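Work Package 3 (structural annotation) set out to generate three-dimensional models for the target panel prioritized at the project kickoff. During this period the team completed the workflow that converts sequence records into discrete structure tokens, so that structures can be stored uniformly alongside our sequence database. As a representative example, we reproduce one entry of 189 residues exactly as it appears in the project archive.
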Amino acid sequence: MTGNLVLLGVAIGQAQFTSSIRSVIAFAGFAVGLLIGGRMTAKTEPDAVWPPSVSRAMIGELSFLLAFLVGWEIAGDRPATLALDILAALSAGAMGMQTALARRLGVGGVTTTFITGTLTSLIAGFAAVGPGRSRSMMWAATLACLVIGAAAGAALFIAWRPGGPLVAVLLVAIVLALGAARRQTEARA
């Protein structure tokens, strides 16, 4: 969202209000997703590695992404402005849900929607002397996975346009399945 807010500020500063509309739409979609995800994952249940509320919220995120995928297919290669606005709102809503999920899970220093923060945590971990350094591998792996995922999504988009958004849908579905399996393992223990 940082980029959208910066673009919004630049457009306002240059009195180009019409060019700021998509940034406002993306910000609003993110805020709505964050509000829904935050409400769904509010700490109303005991702490667990994978609380049930996280699975429910991931289904919400998956719903945003599936709606995006359907819209993507309907819009085609040359989407109208309204279609682009709807797609921006849906993808930003999914990002907001993801941010709420990451926050609820409390994975320190890792967030998929604030990459600079994860990079900052990694570099700060390298500078640390003591226990903070142990998380560096997790942060490095997170950054590597983000780059690999972006590269795979872009390559798939070039090779097969419908597959672009499918990558996000599949990855969220895989994480949801792994989280559900983890929760079942916890329940048996």
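Residues 2-188 form one domain.
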